[in-house]
Write a structure and sequence with these properties.
This protein is mostly helical and 345 residues long. It contains ten helices and four strands; from the N terminus they run E-E-H-H-H-E-H-H-H-E-H-H-H-H. The strands form two sheets. The chain has a two-stranded antiparallel ribbon with strand order 1-2. Strands 3-4 form a two-stranded antiparallel sheet.
Length: 345
């Protein structure tokens, strides 16, 4: 891996292309360019047979420069560093800061490549790539570019083995606050990749990590417990504590927690966990009662009906008639003769 620093001071880890892949990519580009050059030359020879020898030589030189030199420059400029051969082998030309190349970078690479690749049959380019730390030829050095690999094989994700069942909960009282994040990361990386290590090297690394972890926590490795099982048990205890802490914080803030109870905000009306089980019925606006002259003369049904309090008879809401609104406008008695006088509202 090669570490490049961008203009924003960001370190990029890029994998430079090796000499075999670069040589194959250049060879494929040369085969295509030479084939195109031969086709164009044959067409020009047939179409310019009537010209003199000097004109034919000038056309052949111009064809050589345009096809074998200008063609790769144009292709790399338009494709941002991916020619046909580089695209076939998963390579790309980038700047020293990791950005895409421009016309001036492709021009310098193509002009110097004419000398170190075409005129010397690639000998100078091979020597320069072998001497350079990042495999750069002279064109890359003068142009400030680098050929990197785009298709990097993806490693299989590591699997962290669980601790033995007889170690579950044994380190529940261990203080893990003094363990730095770097040590946790090293332990996790070891547990996920210990199957890929040599047994002797992996055992020594496990003992060293277990000693560092025991020194930070103040709890020595129990006798008879392998260092790998000790590391797995402590990491599992830390994960369990983080899950419990996240669950408590989620319950305190009211946010839904993955794997926890049903959230209050997301519960349906009438279901368990919802606040408003049934929405309240809308109440009619309060209005003053309008006296009825016919109902005022009617005696009460019982002499103590008006004096009965709420304790004597509980109200039955199911038998009460729904409230009615008074009619708009002044009330008019149909038995009184019309006088033309309208009482005030």
């Amino acid at each position: 891996m090669s570490e490049l620093v961008t203009g924003e001071a960001v370190a990029l880890e890029l994998r430079p292309a090796k000499l075999p892949s670069r040589a194959l990519a250049v060879l494929l580009d040369l085969v295509v360019a030479v084939a195109a050059y031969l086709i164009v030359t044959m067409v020009l020879v047939m179409s310019t047979a009537s010209l003199d020898q000097a004109a034919q030589i000038a056309l052949s030189i111009a064809t050589f420069l345009l096809v074998l030199v200008g063609g790769p420059i144009a292709v790399e400029t338009l494709s941002h560093g991916r020619s046909l051969g580089k695209a076939a082998f998963g390579l790309r030309v980038v700047r020293d800061d990791g950005g895409p190349i421009r016309f001036r970078h492709a021009l310098v690479r193509g002009a110097i490549g004419t000398v170190e690749i075409l005129m010397t049959f690639g000998v100078v380019a091979c020597i320069a790539s072998l001497v350079s730390e990042r495999g750069r030829r002279l064109g890359d050095v003068f142009a400030g570019t680098l050929v990197v690999r785009e298709r990097v094989p993806v490693a299989r994700a590591g699997y962290m083995p669980p601790p033995p069942p007889w170690l579950a909960g044994r380190f529940s009282g261990t203080d893990l606050s003094a363990v730095p994040d770097g040590l946790w990361l090293a332990v996790r990386q070891y547990l996920t990749r210990m199957q890929q290590l040599d047994p002797q090297v992996g055992g020594a690394m496990a003992e060293r990590l277990a000693a560092d972890l025991a020194g930070r926590t103040g709890t020595p490795v129990p006798e008879g417990v392998p260092p790998t099982a000790y590391l797995a048990a402590v990491v599992q205890e830390r994960q369990a504590r983080e899950v419990r802490r996240a669950f408590r914080n989620g319950m305190a803030s009211g946010a839904p927690v993955a794997g926890g109870p049903q959230s209050v905000a997301g519960a349906a009306p009438g279901s368990y966990g919802s606040v408003n089980v049934r929405p309240p019925a809308p109440s009619a606006p309060h209005s003053p009662a309008v006296p009825d002259p016919h109902s005022a003369a009617a005696p009460p049904a019982h002499p103590l009906a008006g004096a009965a309090g709420p304790e004597s008879r509980p109200p039955d809401h199911s038998e009460e008639p729904p409230p009615t609104l008074p009619p708009e406008g002044p009330s008019v008695d149909p038995h009184r003769p019309a006088t033309g006088f309208v009482p005030p509202a």
